[in-house]
Design goal:
With 147 residues, the chain is mainly α. Helices cover 72% and strands 0% of the residues. Helix 1 (5-23) packs parallel to helix 3 (45-57), helix 5 (79-94) packs parallel to helix 7 (119-134) and helix 7 packs across helix 8.
């Protein structure tokens, strides 16, 4: 199975956002570090950069949206799951051209690859509720389509 450039970008983004969350390091320094990695050439670099720069820039909005949907303070959510939730919420809000199901699936896959045993279920539930709130028309249309 080949991985798409966008999926690869999300994997690198998850690692970079995780590092940023854990160290508080300047996101530009983290971005520069990742841009030196030749494996990033197999990813969509512009999309990766958008995620890495857009998530910290929009952090208050993203975290407010997420906090209203979870059962504990966001800072208590596992750091990998928190990074996946932030990536997914950013895409849901800022990348309307990407179908919500693709965004949720990609975030769930990130949580499966990098996160705790059942963390992907939590990510799926939170992002599904967020999609219903901010992309209600798209979600309603998808529900009406025969499977």
């Amino acid at each position: 199975m080949t991985i798409s450039k966008r999926s690869r970008s999300r994997q690198f983004a998850l690692q970079a956002i995780y590092q940023w969350q854990m160290t508080g390091q300047d996101v530009i320094l983290i971005l520069d570090q990742f841009l030196e990695d030749e494996r990033l050439a197999k990813a969509d670099v512009d999309f990766f950069m958008d995620l890495i720069q857009g998530i910290p820039t929009n952090l208050n909005t993203l975290d407010q949206e997420l906090q209203s949907l979870i059962d504990r303070p966001l800072e208590q959510v596992d750091a990998v799951e928190r990074a996946a939730l932030r990536i997914g919420s950013y895409e849901l809000i800022k990348h309307a051209a990407t179908p919500y199901r693709v965004i949720i699936n990609e975030a769930v896959e990130l949580a499966k690859i990098f996160g705790a045993d059942q963390g992907h279920r939590y990510v799926n539930g939170v992002l599904d509720r967020l999609a219903r709130r901010i992309r209600s028309q798209e979600v309603d249309m998808a529900a009406k389509k025969p499977q």
